[in-house]
Specification:
LysR-type_TF, five-stranded mixed sheet, elongated, 3 domains, DNA binding, WH-like_DNA-bd_sf, LysR family transcriptional regulator
Length: 316
Amino acid sequence: MDGGKGANKDFDYNLIKILDAVISAGNATKAAKRLSITPAAVSLALRRLQNHYQEELFVRGKEGLLPTAKAIEIHHHFRQVMELINGTFHSPVSKEESAQITVLGSDTIESYYFSQLYNNAVFERVLINHFSSHNMSRERVIEQLFTAECDLVISQEPISVPGIDNQMIDSFKSFVCICAANHMFSQLSQLTLHHFYSSRHALYKMNISNPMMGEDNGLLRDDSPYKGQREVGYCSDSVNSLVSTVERTSLIAIMPLKMALFYKNQRKYDIKFVQPPPELTFRSIQVYASWKKNSKNLAVITDVVSMLHTLSSFRR
């Protein structure tokens, strides 16, 4: 066989490291920064790597180079090999030392999910570290998974990149309006559109820009006949703070029914439920768990994800 495509003679395995960096980082520029080399050097390495394969490894898209199925296959095998090699550099640890997990998510993960698992045996055998993902970019979250800075990410979107597994652990489909127990709406069974849009709202928002008027494009379904603007009197990235504010003011808020029941019945907040206007149709909200497929803490991750999914199943 000659030295054309498909030849393995004098193959430079450092090229696979470049491929891994490009796929993990998302594009050549970020990969170059991560590897402390120039983007031109990354491009040259990818061209050299392509010479060894008959199938295309990348196609160009709007956001840069996109890996093909062949590139993802190579990347997956490389990751498996690197995990095996890296494992030889670590001293064996006891079962107790290895039984820990680092979770990345919003305050909702702690206040709503983990607080309902405190009596579970997992807290007797697993150290759970929770850190906020507030103001953290999607790229940074993915990087933390791949570098094992965190083991599990809980968010409203799956992380659809090679090497990451996802599982939907919860889905919110029914919504209610909450208000203080002494609110003038507390005796109503259902709000009108006038009630809804003439009231000031408490709004849960991860990234606050201009909270004076709340766009409902992210709240209402595309086929909803009404899409107005709510006047926002309080905007927070904390669900605990939002419910506490509603309890003590004349503000109202829209919440998933399951979560509202939790704050009323278990957290004992003095709030009332009122049905939203019948003209409004709300988007369902999904919650996903994401983790690295070959994580060294895979057994613990699987256990925690299973518990979270079971918890949500009992609260449909």
